[in-house]
Write a structure and sequence with these properties.
This protein is an all-alpha fold. It has 16 helices and no strands. It has helices at residues 2-27, 35-55, 63-83, 87-90, 93-99, 106-117, 121-127, 133-144, 149-159, 163-186, 203-206, 208-217, 227-239, 245-264, 270-289, 293-306.
Length: 307
Amino acid sequence: MLTFFRRRLDELATALFLLIVLVCTLLHPPVFATPGGLLLARAVLISSAVLMAVLVPAARWSQKARALLGPVLDFAPVVVAVVGYVALHLLNAYAITAALHIPFLDRDMLAADVALFGQTPYVLFARWGMDGVGFLRVMTACYALYPLTPMLMLGWFALNRDRANFLLVRRTLIVSFYLGYCSYILIPVSGPLSLLPPAPPGFIESTSIYAFLANNFRYVADCFPSLHTANPWLMVWVGRKGFPRWLLAGACLVCCGITLSTMALRLHYGIDVVAGLAWVFSVAPLARATLPRPVAAQLQASLRQAS
């Protein structure tokens, strides 16, 4: 049983997550700000149901079917985990936080920023002149890279047929995303915009796409820890031995841009980012511990060979 769990954890977690979302949504239909939000949510749910129907019986399909659907089965768990952020709204996760009588912790986070940095980083950036339109456009581009980074990292290992590192990065992402969503529910933090004096909308807040997504799907307690910080660095950290130096350097540069953007765009406190970096060294060993033994042994052999 334990061997099966280690081997199928990604698929099992995905199927269970989709089942919970579908059941909760049917029992308590969510409310959306616009008709477009409802249409998009229905499309996501229908697609999720189809994915679940494929993932669950996949282990029993013929070898030919597995070869044909291999890429779908490989990448689908991470796609569901990334898109699963909208499920916090679909699940009405606010009600869970309220039922547990957990207050929003923004004032505590702001106090932590003041203690660590003298002020929350966005205010410092503004003092240093790092709030111009051009700079914020660059930061918006960096921030928007976040959902693409898992596919790019996994795609590299898939193209190079490095199955062990592919499974390691995928398992790490699955563990990080779902534990992170639980943290959002148990440690509710809205971000600096909820406490700072009103300011003109930044570039990202001025876009119609952001307004649509924020109004319909944003879960306002989605800051601690900063998964925008944690997940890109997690992928670099656990997969670093499988990257050539030029790719590792480029990945680190992208990670720095994404991390900086979380604060420059007023979306995270500095303490959220610190927690995101600490998250890397908490989740990485946990994910490694759940890997199937043959995969773990192959990774260990690769490390010995590289050294």
